[in-house]
Amino acid sequence: MHGGHDHHHHDGGGGTSADHAGAGHNHAPRPRGSVQWQTPHRPHGEQEPIARREADVDLVEAAFVEGFLSASDPTSFLRLAQVPFEATATDGIKLALLRVEVDAVADVGSVTPHLGGGSFRYDPLPARMVSRRKRLRFIYFDGQGPRPLDLAEVRALTAI
Question: Which of 137, 132, 158, 157 lies closest to 148, judged by CA?
Answer without folding.
Answer: 137
